[in-house]
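=== RUN LOG ===
request id: a7f3
mode: sequence -> structure
chains: 1
length: 399
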Amino acid sequence: IDPFYNVEMNQSPASTLTINNRMDITNQLTLTSGRIVTGANEVRVTNTATTAVTPGNANSYVQGRLRRFIGGIGAYDFPVGTSSYQRANVNFTAAPGVHNLLAWFNDWPGIPPTPPNPTAECGAQYHTCPMLNNGYWTINAFNSSFTQITTSGTYTMTLYNTAFTTCPGAAQFGVLKNNGSGWFIQNPGCHANAKAAAVQRPGMSGFSDFGTGQSVQPLPVYFTLWDGYVRADEAHVLRWDVLTEGQRVSRFVIETGSSSEELRPWRTFSADTREAVRENPPVGVSLYRLRVHLEDGSEVQSSVLELRRAAPEAGLKHLEAFPNPTTGELTVRFMVSSAEPVSLSLWNALGQVVMERRVEPSERGWVETRLYLGELPAGPYLLRVMQGGELHTKLIQRQ
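=== RESULT ===
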């Protein structure tokens, strides 16, 4: 099969393009206007960039099978559908462990099934309603030999539903999975969503069928805010707020870890706390989950939040010393990329060493120590900080 480099669907007016063989695209699939109808064939995008396929829209998507090669951590869109546009987004938060994913959308053959009783999490009871009636996605994983595999790295699944009507009284919606034995919750927690148009579940692994469960039971706790950001000094700032239905919060517990399977309690906060700061977090991905403990002894948990800290550049970086000028006490901060010992020395204007200090970092990241200049006369001093063969200096003024 001769591949295409770029394919852009931009028909006016929007119509269809039916393929009678596999369509291979080595760079970019751009979906603006018009549908690609595959039948039993497939559109295959071999570019592993997350942006190699655009999200599409209600007038432009793959009506049939879309296969994407997977390159690494990141979010991959699958704009597929039958008579309507239905997009799935797979956001790998760990090494994918798959070579490619093949996705398509299915209409229900009749009345949508109802998940078995119980299918519940955090107050949402998906067995109280049939599955959302627009249909469901099939997403299968393959290795480089195009053999189907059932395992994968951890990912967050987001389903963007269109052309549906909800169950009467449905107030919560969640991503459910079917491996062939019925619809179930993978990674249960407080992952119900208030709107059916976009439902998300973190901490998933393995691929099969995905659909949207509905619940007429509201959550006892509503997370009106649960987000975070990385501060300029690389600290992680977490923020939250909740509404409860006739219950009082007794405390909050934040869990953290490098994967959803490894989340462990980090700190406990009082009921009136709404923000936490984690100084000097580990390099790489940190996942966070908030547990809300209620006074009646029950608890609910949030979705998993992901923050990242970039690896520091090699060597000794970002030497700071304050206050400068100083009247006696001097705080010295710097960043290290290894646990190799660091030597600090202070030199007077005559070139004499008047103070020495050895610091042994316990891990990579920011290191802070204090020097006391109380016995030294006023005047200029040169601070020298060395790790390995790398030297940084800063002029200090003693008042």
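=== NOTES ===
The two ends are 78 Å apart (CA to CA).
Residues 48 and 70 are 5 Å apart (CA to CA).
=== END ===
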